[in-house]
Design a protein that fits this description.
The chain has helices at residues 17-30, 47-50, 57-84, 98-107, 116-119, 126-135, 161-169, 171-176, 195-203, 220-231, 245-251, 254-260, and strands at residues 5-10, 33-38, 89-93, 111-115, 140-143, 152-156, 179-184, 209-213, 235-239, 265-269. It is of the alpha/beta class and 270 residues long. Strand 1 (5-10), helix 1 (17-30) and strand 2 (33-38) form a beta-alpha-beta unit. The chain is elongated and about 60 Å long. The two termini are 20 Å apart. 40% of the residues are buried. The model is unreliable at 243-252 (pLDDT under 50).
Length: 270
């Protein structure tokens, strides 16, 4: 089992360069295809606001501006991908309906890479991040400075189905890691779980891991981020949105805290 296709959604701006570089590092680690997918603003999303049967000058101008921006973004993505220097990279520009195309590309990819801005609800790809991780339930990487394959990975474990899905879908990353630490905070979970059971599970799959019990109560995200810093983690693997999605958005939750605080790159799965 490995990752054969890694996808990086792009807005078509020069600000995408950092994300592309991180995605390249991840793809190189697995000798995977890198799908660089340009997701422009969709003209279809504007139509409900235009009014039925009416296309005035302002509306026409808005549509023309979107068309021009899409073409310019397409050229920008092509140029950046060519300059990336990764032979297995491929530039793809989506057309309306953009979301349907993005969803299909995501379903045909093993992992989807976003940057901090999108993960924190900022920028043109913020909605795409929420849709991919919550609606499409695709595994995502939130790329942060220093992302690398083959370093130290910490797995957050509470015995729940979200943590289980994240751990299982991250197995290719764990199998390439130099060090894997399984961490859990019994004091902040209503579940009963044993970290050594997960250590045994991973050992049967070729992953040598150690366990780390996090003492404390209340803020699970704070405990996890502190432990990740202590062990020098390059990646933190965690389940995402363990509570209903709307509840997470209104009240926060561990996922939101992990996204909004600095730390290692994240591997998240819902």
């Amino acid at each position: 089992m490995s990752w054969a296709r890694i996808m990086a959604p792009l807005a078509g701006a020069t600000a995408d360069r950092g994300l592309l570089e991180s995605a390249r590092v991840l793809a190189e680690g697995f000798d995977a295809e890198l799908a660089c997918v340009h997701a422009p603003a969709d003209m279809a999303d504007l139509m409900p606001w235009m009014g039925e049967g009416f296309m005035g000058g302002v509306q026409v101008t808005a549509l023309e501006s979107l068309k021009e921006a899409a073409v310019e973004g397409h050229h920008t993505v092509d140029k950046m991908v060519a300059e990336l220097g990764y032979a297995r990279s491929r530039a793809i520009s989506l057309e309306s309906p953009v979301w349907a195309g993005l969803a299909m590309e995501g379903r045909l990819s093993d992992v989807i890479v976003f940057d901090n801005a999108a993960a924190r609800g900022k920028g043109p790809l913020a909605e795409a991040f929420q849709q991919m991780i919550a609606d499409e339930q695709r595994p995502v990487v939130v790329a942060r400075p220093g992302l690398k394959v083959g370093g130290t990975v910490m797995v957050a474990w509470d015995g729940g189905k979200e943590a289980s899905r994240a751990m299982r879908t991250s197995l290719p990353l764990l199998q390439k890691a130099a060090k894997v630490v399984v961490a859990g905070a019994p004091g902040v979970s209503s579940r009963s779980f044993a970290l050594e059971r997960l250590v045994e599970f991973l050992a049967a799959r070729g992953v040598v891991a150690t366990s780390k019990v996090l003492d404390g109560s209340g803020d699970a995200a704070g405990l996890l981020l502190g432990a990740a810093k202590e062990v020098g983690a390059d990646f933190l693997v965690a389940g995402a949105f363990g509570h209903p999605r709307l509840q997470e958005f209104i009240f926060g939750g561990t996922t939101r805290s992990l996204l909004n605080n600095d730390g290692p790159s994240l591997f998240l799965s819902h």
